[in-house]
């Protein structure tokens, strides 16, 4: 395309499509999940109570300097997942025996921008946040408009119908809660023995998944049953949350004892 007006319209349409909801109707209420943590009744009441100036001041002054704790801005606690992932991959390279292992790296495409508001609403209710607070949060999330800059000039303003904003203090917490729901679904599948997690050592803990922002590491025994379970969990999650898996950035890592023919079969099914 060389015509400036056509390029401009194409860019505008692309962003409108990205921020337009894919839910034609409201999603059903999220069902019960084993081991789900919920807000207690006392905590719910405290969340509905207006904050006093003293409480705001006390909270601000008690905050730890975690925004930039080191020169690279990386929080030390986030290194744990990296070390665990390295140990799991290292153990897979030494894996022997008949039972193979598979780690699937899943990349979520435009994870913040695709998050459905109705899903945020249902997730907050699922964790028993008070209805008044849920409505207030949704008002904060949905009360914004977008204008694209093209060659230094503003394009036509439009109202999105999904997505959370980068830089909004609420966004990281909402993103964590929405991934927490996926985590609980995975734990539920493990509890039902349909998803078999893997270990880095014989006596070590089992790992079914690790989350790095919008990158997911799904760990399981290399079997068709587990692959089918993963497809089921991810398809259900993506259909209600609005997420889309970026296949070009997703990868599968197999232990050395997985037959090459089986590897192709697993990748094909995924």
UniProtKB/TrEMBL annotation:
Sequence intervals crossing the membrane: none
Organism: Fagus sylvatica
Residue ranges annotated for the Reverse transcriptase domain, each copy included: 1-270
Protein name: Reverse transcriptase domain-containing protein
Database matches in InterPro entries: DNA/RNA_pol_sf (IPR043502), Retrotransposon-Effector_Assoc (IPR052343), RT_dom (IPR000477)
Superkingdom of source: Eukaryota
Pfam family, one: RVT_1
